[in-house]
Structure formats: structure tokens, C-alpha cells
Amino acid sequence: MNITIIGAGYVGLVTGVCLASVNHDVIVLDIHEKKVDLLKQGISPIYEPGLEPLLKQQLQDHKMTFTTDYHEACNQAEIIILAVGTPSKQDGSSDLSFIKSAAEEIGAQLMKNGTIIVTKSTVPVGTNKKIKGWIQNRLSGPYHFSLASNPEFLREGSAIHDTFDGDRIVIGADSQAAAAKLEEMHRPFNVPVLHTSIESAEMIKYASNAFLATKISFINEIANICEKLGGNIEDVAHGMGMDSRIGPHFLQAGIGYGGSCFPKDTNALVQLAGDIDHKFELLESVIKVNAKQQVSLVNKAREHFGSLSGKKAGVLGLSFKPNTDDIREAASIEIVKQLLAEGVAVTVYDPVAIDNARSVLGESVSYGEHLFDSIEDQDMLFIATEWEEFKVLRLKTIAKLMKNPAVFDGRNCFSLEEAKETTVDYYSVGRPAVI
Ligand code: NAD
């Protein structure tokens, strides 16, 4: 099939490369010229395991091209997939301006009947109706097109695996023919397909992310209570997860969720509910709990030292989770900002996210070239992301390198037994402090 993807970000690029690798002819369009130039050379502008070699292969096999030209991208496409960003507006609702301008460009370039326009971006229920209007307003002739919602569930860090081996593909289309064609497009992925209405498909994405965020805030609250009453959250979560009605996933206590999806999508769902006068109290609490959880380690550090002013801190891990360079809404950034506000000199380290962090933190912090740069001679060490290279470190080594070995581990990377054998004052989440 001739498929066009609009937006070469985490979702659009991975989707494009995977569709090309199962023999579709794919054009990916982005308005960001530098990104498109890099992609034409087979260089991925994002860090995603396995992506770059697969991209190079598709270019070599002539299955994939990149462009900034809407005419070239849209006029012959059988299927056009919208994968542009839908960031949060100030009030938390979804900013649809990228979707609108992409839809208008598509409308202006449609030159044949039967194109299916698919929304993969996460958009509020009802957006596909707006997209239809934005396209129609720009059509240069009486062309007929179909619409579908096909929300994306990939996780950064395992995006290619998730595309080929996901739990489900959700298709909400406005005609049976469009639904059948989209099912055919996905067939090589061998993932179960669920057909729904467009509105249900749009809601499945928000409801899924909101539910996962709820699980995270729930276990973090149980962790906070364990810290005060006694109990070890690892054992508690294990015991809960053995119940098949609960399941073991998403029960890791830590410093909260981040990334480009959960914070934005939970806020958007609260706003969406508010628009129809429904106060989504449960989700509002989930969001509040997460905001507190992100800086909970700094509170522990303040209690430990009395005052943080004039101290030196290392922060290991900046990406919102391992195996990605995405720092959007990462707990690490909140921790760094809080430390700086309290007069702490901060040195950060991340294996792949330093460039992205620099664009947010600028010269307010020092950047370690090696992870030891964030540990050596520091008064305190924060672990914000559970990268494998941090987990294989030994607390004994950390103790030797630090001035006052105080470790605030937001991802429970080390066992309490190991901490007890060292001179490190060790604080983690939902487990007793070792001091
Ligand atoms: P991103 O910010 O990484 O990429 C978006 C891309 O769209 C950028 O490259 C940008 O230059 C481009 N763009 C913006 N306006 C454009 C326009 N008018 N025409 C063409 N290109 C345009 O975003 P992302 O993380 O890939 O997310 C895209 C959508 O998918 C969002 O709605 C997001 O919520 C959803 N989603 C993301 C993930 C994820 O893990 N990142 C997972 C599931 C769903």
C-alpha cells in the first residue's frame, strides 16, 4: 500500500519504518527540515533501540522516503496517518493546532477519491469530526475520503518490539471498507485487532493511559504509607501482583510517571470531562499524587541534611525512563529544578539524554561526561532513571567516591541488604531508610 505518515517523531518515524519493513511503500513528512535531512541520510534524530539500522535498511530497499512537501506526500496516498504532536495547553487541554494545520494541508493536496485519513496522534473524543471539517474546508474538488482513529500504544524504549508484538491494534473507522483496509495494512504485524466506533477508539487511548497512571500513583501512595508504618513496598507489590485480578505490571513504586504521554493525557482527560461538567476527581488525585511524588526525594534530602543550601548533588538519569532520550515531564527535571531553587550545585549525567536536557536546563547545571562525574565529591546522589549502567554500579563504589555518601534512589535500584553493608545513608521509595 502507498502510505503517508505526517510527523516524524517517536510515533510517526517508528510506525513508518515498521510499515516499510513489512513491504508497504511509505512516505514520511515532517515540517522540520533538519529532521528530514537527517532522516534522508539514514540518521535517526531520536534515540530508540533498533530504529536506526531498520531505517537504513528501508532507505536501501527504496521502501521509504522523507519529505517536507505536502503535495508530494499526499496526492497519491491510499492511507495518510496523522502522527503529529498534541501537547498540553496551559489549562491542560489538548493543543490541536498541529493536527489542524496538518489536516488543512492534507485537504488542500487531496487529488483523488478514497484516501483514508487515520489519526494516530492521541486526540480528545470528537476530534475526528473536527478533522473532517478542517479537511473539507480546504478540498480543491469534490473528493471523497474516509476517516479513522487508530491510536498508538507503543512505549518509547521498546517501540519497535511493541509495533510488531503489541497487545492490540484499535481501529475505529467511519466505513467498513476503511476498517477492512486498515486491518489489511496491519496484518503483517500479527497483533489482535479490535474494531470500534471512532469515539470509542479515541477514548480507549485516554482511558488506558489514565488507568496506568492511576496504578502508578496508587502504588506510590502505598509506598509512602509503608515508609511511615513499616513494610517493604517490593514485597507488598509482589503480593498484590500475584492476584490475577490485579496483575504484576505497573506496580513499581518510584518517583512517579513522566514522559510525553501520561502527564499530558491525564490532564487532557480531566479537561475533557470538565467540558461536559464531569469532575474527574479520581484522576485529579492521581495527577496531584504524581506531582508530589516527583520531588519526594528532595524532601527526604532536606530532612537528612537540615538545609540543602551550598551542598553539591549528582543526578543520575535524566530521561523519563531508561532506553530513551525523551526528557519531557521527567521527574529528574523537577528534582534538578527544586535542588537549584534550594541553592544546590548540581551535576547531571545520562547516557543519551544530555543534549535534550541541555535545551531545558541550559548552563544552570554541570554536565558529566561519565557517570562518575556525577558521583565524585558530591554530598548527595539522586537516582532518577533506572538505566542498566546505574543498576550494575555497586553502592560500595559509590560510597568511596562521595564526600558524604547519601544516596536518594528514586527507582529502588539497590537492595537494602547491600546498603546495610556500606557506609552509605540510603533512602529509597517505600522501603525503610538505611542510615
Ligand atoms: P513528537 O513531538 O516526537 O513528534 C511530532 C512530530 O510532528 C515532530 O517531528 C514535528 O516536527 C512534527 N509536526 C508538527 N506539526 C506538523 C505538521 N503540521 N506537519 C508535519 N509534521 C508536523 O511526538 P510523538 O511523541 O511522536 O507523539 C505524536 C503523537 O502520538 C502525540 O499525540 C502523542 O500523544 C501520541 N503518542 C505518543 C507516544 C510516545 O511514546 N511518544 C505513544 C503513543 C501515542
Question: Can you lay out the helices and strands and say which pair or pack?
Answer:
Blueprint: E1 2-6, H1 10-21, E2 25-29, H2 33-40, H3 51-60, E3 64-67, H4 70-74, E4 79-82, H5 97-109, E5 115-119, H6 127-138, E6 145-149, H7 159-164, E7 169-173, H8 176-186, E8 193-196, H9 198-229, H10 233-241, H11 262-275, H12 281-294, H13 296-305, E9 312-316, H14 331-341, E10 345-349, H15 354-361, E11 366-367, E12 380-383, H16 388-391, H17 395-401, E13 406-409, H18 416-420, E14 425-427
Parallel strand pairs: 1-2, 1-4, 2-3, 4-5, 5-6, 7-8, 9-10, 9-12, 10-11, 12-13, 13-14
Antiparallel strand pairs: 6-7
State the main characteristics.
N-(1-d-carboxylethyl)-l-norvaline Dehydrogenase, domain 2; binds nicotinamide-adenine-dinucleotide; 435 residues; elongated; 3 domains; UDP-Glc/GDP-Man; alpha/beta; six-stranded parallel beta sheet; Rossmann fold; eight-stranded mixed beta sheet; single chain; 18 helices; 44% helix
Question: Could you walk me through the main structural features you see in this protein, from its secondary elements to its overall organization?
Answer:
It catalyses: UDP-alpha-D-glucose + 2 NAD(+) + H2O = UDP-alpha-D-glucuronate + 2 NADH + 3 H(+). Pathway: Nucleotide-sugar biosynthesis; UDP-alpha-D-glucuronate biosynthesis; UDP-alpha-D-glucuronate from UDP-alpha-D-glucose: step 1/1. This protein is of the alpha/beta class and 435 residues long. 44% of the residues lie in helices and 14% in strands. An eight-stranded mixed sheet has the order 3-2-1-4-5-6-7-8, with helices on both faces. Strands 11-10-9-12-13-14 form a six-stranded parallel sheet, with helices on one face. Helix 1 packs across helix 3. The longest helix is centred in the middle third of the chain and has 32 residues, at 198-229. The chain is elongated and about 75 Å long. The model has no long low-confidence stretch (mean pLDDT 97). Bound molecules: nicotinamide-adenine-dinucleotide. Nicotinamide-adenine-dinucleotide binds at residues 6-12, 29-32, 35, 83-86, 98, 101-102, 121-122, 152, 154, 156, 260-261.
